Amino acid sequence: MSTLLQAYRFALDPTPDQESALRSHCGAQRFAYNWGLAVVKANLDQRAAERSYGIGGDDLTPAVDWSAYSLRKHWNQDKHLVAPWWAENSKETYSSGLANLATALSNWSKSRSGKRKGRRVGFPRFKGKRSALSCRFSTGAFGLTDSDRRHVRLPRIGIVRTHESTRKLARRIDAGTARIRSATVSFRRGRWFVSFSVEVRRAEPETRTVASPSVVGVDLGVKTLAVLSTGEMIENPKHLEHAQKKLRRLNRQAARRVGRDKRTNQQPSNRWLATQARVARLHSYVADARRDGLHKLSTRLVRTHDVVVLEDLNVAGMLRNRSLARHIAGGRDG
């Protein structure tokens, strides 16, 4: 038996009170992240200022430990002063925010010292109110419900209805071959989602010796989604390109309505918000259609060939090309 981690994502249908609680939990995670980053940055600035005055060695202000454990310990000491409302949300939201900060600081430090390969990682930035809403739960009462297959349970939020059935995951849990380890709630394109990180146990596949394994090469493109070494050409469905007419019309409609203006603190009108919701739903449809097509193609290649060789593209360089940027960033919908 082999063990692997697999994600199961479900779209949520929360009540207004539950949506308010979800936003509060996501905001709590962001607050803990920003609080920890402010503490670390103030410590780094203090030590840099002291070095500029010739202070060094043991005379420097002690460095703040960046580990998730130390940040949580520091948070527990100060949370009553900096966030007297902290008990309104699950403690896991604050812990996950600090854990994300610890990972970001570790990546920055390793990239700075050359221990991390790849593109250089910058210093973490503060998360604003418009950043993506997300929070993670690793302990507490979360998972599926015993009553039906249309609800999930989240800590401090309760039982939330889902748009689709959870029976596929429920069958694995009932069979004893799956165990939920964590739950991540996120808000994407106007909809709430919960993603369960599941530890799945599967039987080891039988090893077989193939005299002449089936090998296929995949050349990724823009006009065509892919060209296989067998000569087959995979047509590009161009989901984003087909949605451009409707997207332009919605954007023109939003431009004629009263939108948000941060300079004058102008609040948007209800019609502007409704138009933006329609834009978000359109982008969600395009992304889901693109993801579905890519999953079907990759599944077919894996099931019909023993070895799949992919082209190594310089995507970052292609994104700098103004003519290709939209098509590449849009999942090669060009």
Structure, explained:
With 334 residues, the protein is an alpha+beta fold. Helix content is 43%, strand content 20%. It is built from 9 helices and 11 strands. It has helices spanning 16-52, 68-82, 91-113, 167-175, 239-242, 244-255, 270-304, 315-319, 325-329, and strands at 2-11, 133-137, 143-144, 151-154, 158-161, 178-188, 191-202, 215-220, 224-228, 233-235, 307-310. It has a 4-stranded antiparallel sheet with strand order 1-7-6-2. A 4-stranded mixed sheet has the order 10-9-8-11, with no helix packed on it. A 3-stranded antiparallel sheet has the order 3-4-5, with no helix packed on it. The protein is globular.
Q: Layout of helices and strands, plus pairs?
A:
Blueprint (H helix, E strand, L loop, with lengths): L1 E10 L4 H37 L15 H15 L8 H23 L19 E5 L5 E2 L6 E4 L3 E4 L5 H9 L2 E11 L2 E12 L12 E6 L3 E5 L4 E3 L3 H4 L1 H12 L14 H35 L2 E4 L4 H5 L5 H5 L5
Parallel strand pairs: 8-11
Antiparallel strand pairs: 1-7, 2-6, 3-4, 4-5, 6-7, 8-9, 9-10
Helix pairs in contact: 1-3, 2-3, 6-7
Percent helix among the residues?
40-55%
Q: How are helices and strands ordered from N to C? A: EHHHEEEEHEEEEEHHHEHH
- In angstroms, what is the radius of gyration? 24 Å
**Which of globular, elongated, flat, extended, rod-shaped describes the shape?**
globular
Within the largest sheet, what's the order of strands?
A: 1-7-6-2
Number of strands: 11
Low-confidence stretches: none
As a percent range, the share of strand residues is 15-25%
Mean pLDDT: 88
Helix and strand composition category: alpha+beta
**Major sheet, described briefly?**
4 strands, antiparallel
